[in-house]
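Q: Given only this backbone (285 positions), what sequence would you predict?
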């Protein structure tokens, strides 16, 4: 139990020995520094240095008697102080970083390697939206961004969404593809595609459980962002037409990615897909 507690402190800026000292003192206060050193099995000098550091940070208190007994500050008090300090530093950093003018004219395409990076970038894009956002989101991807989409819509940003199940989101124009069942079982993961103001875009293929990233890219290339925005717009319009009983034409429909399954799409499934069961194979037809 104590091992888990010490590891929980390290991401908050505590060294390994500081974490050990604090957790020991929580259970055994008040004791001398020498007693702490013996209990945690660390050199006396290193232990006293850790005690001094913890005292400076307000994690422990030391009595002013000759024995210099140490006592741990309650966790709730410590964590609240750390939270206030972090918030103060965050605000200061925000002020200082805002003084730096971001570089412009970057047309590169960047890889995003974790779900956290993908979601945070998507949220930042939605937060920066001023005119319009177009999206194509599988159900799991939509669940990750639903709250942020509603906040963006409340700011008056126009939002068009291609969805794969009936959904009602206030202020968002959502169209549901009639071929959702086939598409969802054909794709080897949760698809996410976003274009904001024709100024930046994000494309991601997450794992089926949305806990991993197969591949994800982001760019604010002006040309690519405009092209991707236009492609999403065409996809939304076509989905809306078909949902109302319109026809795209049998020859054009046959060229659909998930119907034709060209070489590139087959490679995508070979790389990221799961073994296809008979039931799933039938649904994909």
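A: Predicted residues:
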């Amino acid at each position: 139990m104590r091992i888990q507690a010490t590891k929980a402190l390290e991401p908050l800026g505590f060294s390994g020995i500081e974490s050990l000292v604090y957790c020991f003192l929580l259970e055994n206060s008040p004791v001398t520094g020498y007693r702490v050193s013996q209990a945690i099995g660390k050199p006396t000098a290193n232990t006293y240095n850790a005690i001094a550091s913890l005292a400076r940070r307000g994690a422990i208190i030391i009595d002013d008697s000759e024995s210099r007994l140490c006592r741990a500050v309650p966790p709730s008090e410590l964590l609240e102080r750390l939270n206030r300090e972090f918030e103060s530093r965050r605000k200061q950093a925000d002020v200082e970083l805002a003084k730096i003018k971001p570089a412009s004219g970057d047309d590169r395409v960047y890889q995003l390697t974790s779900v956290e990076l993908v979601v945070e970038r998507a949220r930042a894009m939605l937060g920066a939206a001023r005119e319009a956002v177009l999206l194509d989101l599988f159900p799991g991807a939509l669940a990750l961004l639903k709250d942020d989409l509603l906040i963006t819509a409340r700011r008056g940003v126009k939002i068009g969404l291609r969805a794969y199940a009936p959904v009602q989101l206030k202020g968002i124009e959502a169209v549901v593809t009639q071929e959702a069942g086939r598409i969802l079982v054909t794709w080897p993961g949760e698809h996410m595609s976003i274009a904001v103001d024709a100024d930046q875009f994000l494309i991601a293929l997450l794992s089926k459980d949305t806990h991993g990233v197969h591949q994800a890219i982001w760019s604010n290339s002006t040309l690519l962002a405009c092209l991707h925005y236009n492609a999403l717009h065409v996809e939304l319009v076509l989905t809306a037409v078909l949902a109302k009983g319109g026809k795209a034409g049998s020859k054009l429909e046959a060229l659909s990615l998930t119907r034709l399954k060209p070489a590139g799409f087959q490679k995508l499934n070979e790389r990221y897909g799961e073994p296809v069961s008979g039931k799933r194979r039938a649904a994909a037809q």
